[in-house]
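To: structure desk
From: M.T.
Subject: fold request, one chain
Message: Could you run this one when you get a chance? Sequence is below, nothing fancy, just the single chain.
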Amino acid sequence: MRLAALLFAFIATAVCAQDTRRSGFEDMSRETQAMQRDDLQNPGMLWVQEGAALWARPPSSERQACSGCHTAASMQGVAARYPAFDAVLQRPVNLPQRINLCRERQQKTPPLAYESNALLALESFVAHQSRGLPVAPPDDARLQPHRERGEAMYRQRLGQLDLSCAQCHDQRAGLRLGGNRIPQGHANGYPLYRLEWQSLGSLQRRLRNCLTGVRAEPYPYGDMALVELELYLATRGRGMTIETPAVRP
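Reply: Done. Structure tokens follow.
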């Protein structure tokens, strides 16, 4: 009896410790899931293909292309580690910021505009090299204060609706809002194609949409508050599979 009790306790503990996180993929219709699975149907792959072309194209006759320094294979796992700490700026940067820093520092080329097709394409191409790998934010002590501020923002009530990210995506995940299922809000598929947008978009675009949704003033693209929130979301999604380019309703 004692052995049976111990076995029962072990099983109960294992069940309690089970990972209950769900990708937004699991909350979609079978038709939308099929669209994401099939690279010939997934509209996000158009940006990946454009990114591959930009990767191989020199920005000018005097400058090397990205492919002159990096192979596509060398980008495996890179997106999984962002946001990451930049030693020169002494702060975290996300993947599109890293791409722009490489353009400025290495290619001596002006940065691409946030949410431009060119930057989304390059980000999608790089992130696509990590598809199927786990989200793996770096264990860098320099990131900890930024991660903590990102978590505080995730839990802070904002806007005229006085709602926090956590209230929707932790407490009410799985319920319905306006006929749609509320996801857990994991960021493992960005940049992704939203059927609502009829376009590809970055994680910061989605975060700004959420801020607007609770009637709060959205931070500008590239703002440190958004990067810190991205950093916390990466930590929250540690180990989840990267799906870029994901498709969402």
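Reply (cont.): Residues 1-16 have pLDDT under 50 and may be disordered. Let me know if you need anything else for the meeting.
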